[in-house]
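Sequence in, structure out. Go.
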Amino acid sequence: MSADGPYLFFFSAIGAFNGFILTLYFFLTAYKSRFSNYFLGWLLLMLSVRITKSVFLYFNKPLANVYVQIGLSACVLIGPFLFLYLRKHFTNSAKNWAWHVFPYAIGVMAVGTLFPYSAHRRLWWYLGIFGIYMQWLLYILLSFPYVKDIFKTAFNNHGGLRNIDFWVLSVYTGVSVIWLAHLIAPYTSYIVGALSFSFVIYLMVLLLIFRRNKTSNFFEEKIKYEGKKLDTETLLAIEQKLSWITERELFLNSQLTLSETAKVLEVQPHILSQVLNEKYHKSFSAYINELRIERAKILLHTKHNLTVEGIGFESGFNSKSSFFTVFKKMTGQTPAEYQKKQGL
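Output:
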């Protein structure tokens, strides 16, 4: 090991170690913040496994071939988990997520069993690695539409972004930089990929520490308007468009998000949120839930063939418990008590 070897080993290995720590953090906090953090946790885990392989192979040439194979195989799932994280974050949809994970996982295990790295090194290095990095790139490109508007906002507003937008942009850019670092590693140094990962991980950790809003969850950050008021014309135009939510029955979609609604109304998400806060003094979720409860009241009067739970689903709620909780909060009584009081 050269004189600068210990420093290279430290700075490259510490990134992989912290990657595993962040993975655990996101797995443990996902249930109380955002489900999308599960995908983020898996993304970091795959990156950490891949980088750990690079670190130990660089500093320990006789490393067992099986771990080299595991490290290369992990790359196959980096792109899919990036795509799934961003899609879940922006659309709240995890639809068909398994199709982006299990076929690749099963495929890479099958290839690894039939053509193990130890006996087919040339196949892995000259064909397998090319395919892996092209698939990774494909998912980076598929993920770009989700962050395109954030990039525009960053450039148009001279970098002014909300914490959560800055975070998402950092994840996407970080994964892209790591992909590029590994792609050019044969022309620079094999360890450059690990060092880039360490750099990205430290930026993410610093972001968590210094940009975290202590009064709210970082990953559910509320928009701050800082006294900026909308002009009357804009306010009236958006108020008129709010009727589209009921006319098109958007609120019946149990997975409806602020971003999706803003897209239909042809306004920016933060502007829509601001209008709801300034005009109605309500959050987006409270506004939508009120519409759902009003629909539920109508159904309780007219759909006597439906169970109370069925009425909840027909009104746009995704579970019995959420329907009961919101109904009781807004009316002061359970659906059954409401029916009884109304003589239904």
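Check: Residues 187-191, 211-227 have pLDDT under 50 and may be disordered. Residues 4 and 164 are 37 Å apart (CA to CA).
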